[in-house]
Amino acid sequence: MKTLKVAAAAVLLGTFSFGAMAAQEITREQAKEYEKIGRVDTSGVTSSPMDAKAELSRLADEKGGNYYVVIAADEANRVNATAEVYK
What we know:
The protein is built from three helices and four strands; from the N terminus they run αβαβαββ. By secondary structure, the protein is an alpha+beta fold. 21% of the residues are buried. Keywords: Signal.
């Protein structure tokens, strides 16, 4: 139970710590209000879901996007994730 609380706290802190200055994750429903400008992929460079989320945000920023929607994720030895980027 303690591990669950720590994990939940880490997710919340991670969301707030880089959300203000980087591309933000949104839902598919929210994405309908924005213009899609491309896709980004982590290509298995990270070993944790939070690192993958941060990498997707960074890549979306580089592409000129303000928002992203995760469309695929896979976790084996490394986390692979793909997101659509929106303005």
